[in-house]
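User: Modeling request: complex.
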Amino acid sequence: MDFNDTIVALATPSGAGAISIIRVSGPQAILIVSPVFKPKGKKVLAEQPSHTLHLGNLVGGHRNLDEVLVSIFRAPKSYTGEETIEISCHGSPYIQQEILQLLIRKGCRAAEAGEFTLRAFLNGKMDLSQAEAVADLINSENAASHQMAMQQMRGGFSNEIQKLREELLNFASLIELELDFAEEDVEFANREQFQNLISKIQTVLKRLIDSFATGNVLKNGIPVAIVGEPNVGKSTLLNALLNEDRAIVSEIAGTTRDTIEDEISIGGVGFRFIDTAGIRETKDVVESIGIKKTFEKISQAQIVIFLLEAPSALRSSLPRRQAGPPKGEKLSEISIEIEKIRNRFPQKPILIIINKIDRLSEKELQNLKTDLNVSLSGVEGSHFLLLSAKTGAGVEELKNKLLEYVNVGALRNSDTIVTNSRHYAALLKALEEINKVEDGLNANLSGDLLAIDIRQALLHFGEITGEITNDDLLGNIFANFCIGK
Ligand SMILES: Nc1nc2c(c(=O)[nH]1)N(C=O)[C@@H](CNc1ccc(C(=O)N[C@@H](CCC(=O)O)C(=O)O)cc1)CN2
Ligand SMILES: Nc1nc2c(ncn2[C@@H]2O[C@H](COP(=O)(O)OP(=O)(O)OP(=O)(O)O)[C@@H](O)[C@H]2O)c(=O)[nH]1
Ligand SMILES: [Mg+2]
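Assistant: Request completed. Predicted assembly structure:
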């Protein structure tokens, strides 16, 4: 990639639309566009001040291509930090292509994916983590991922890392100064103050590292597997949650063979629901592959919805008991089922749902509730809900329950949340080095040895913000952007 080139790309999606924006950036941007742009009146585009908007015609050869609006941004005051021209044309794919080709004939090069933002980074308009946040922002589909990306794009995370980096750098310099005075045995860096700084950095790093667990699921959507025996209504529940006929529903047991997934936002948080093949003994090859996949999906899920259906739950799983609390030694069949799943997937939150309550009379429903309270009171951490996937009764309660599982509290305050696995890896490495520095301090290591680990920690901080980088890493990050960004 040559950064002296002037690049051009469609900034809006390709295809027809009301308006499309074509962006041109680079040293020749104004000089290339000005001759093909005929503004209304006598003005010349190349003489217009930055951040102004001009109506006129775009002319290729002797052909008038379109009536357009052109904005001008003068370096370094633009998104990329370079001379930039934006052309708002009519959103016809034909016009878009004609203008792109005209500009390429006049000396522009078609931009590569992420090249505008890469240039913004290289020109110091943003640091690497802010540039990465731009991509996250474009991909954000709910309030949570949007908020995290905005916070990172505004530099919240960068500032935090930058502050630690500066303080650490300060001490590194003092310690390295001691090396120059080795014979005199002086200490410029107060060891007690240094220990305090190290503790502070450890605390911040641990908080950031811990936040990744939340950040990662919030960014990618929380996977929720819907499992249970055939025909209990798993696909009906998926459809009810998504509010659309996504999965095939039928009275035939074994309808769902392959898993079906879709995402919705609940309270600003993305949940990815996974409808699975009903679990049962079967000789059907396809069905048994589906069931195997069900277990895979359970292990990948963050939350498991275990679905049962009301009448059989009433009849077989919950034999009517005499009044009074259970004897304790014998849990109902439901609890045994739940225990089986829980043993197989310990630590996975399991939400037990009794479906098809619309089939019950008011009296049966009351009895069921009492029975569940009694029989599940012994099952640790079990939550259950009654609903009808068919009528939608109880589906809102289910959504609220799911939100309770997510630590949304982490989002409410303005604490930085790490969402990027590259940052997470760098933070882990930085903490490792900081811990080494602490060990060294405790062992009264000399300044020159301490300095080695401090420099190493600084390196990992620099990786996050992009002070330390290489072409491979940059290529990797920006190649995942869309063209025109
Ligand atoms: N038409 C258009 N809309 C857009 C963008 C764009 O590039 N073009 N953006 C692209 O992602 C976002 C806005 N981001 C931008 C960021 C900085 C500057 C800019 O001109 N910055 C100058 C001047 C700042 C000032 O006037 O104070 C600078 O930073 O020096 C423009 C857009 C979203 N909407
Ligand atoms: N009355 C009633 N019927 C329901 C309810 N939910 C689902 N059903 C019916 O139960 C049958 C099975 O529903 P599905 O959603 O296909 O069940 P499934 O669990 O996905 O079944 P498999 O894919 O075969 O494992 C269908 O006839 C549904 O209409 C409900 O809340 N009330
Ligand atoms: Mg199904």
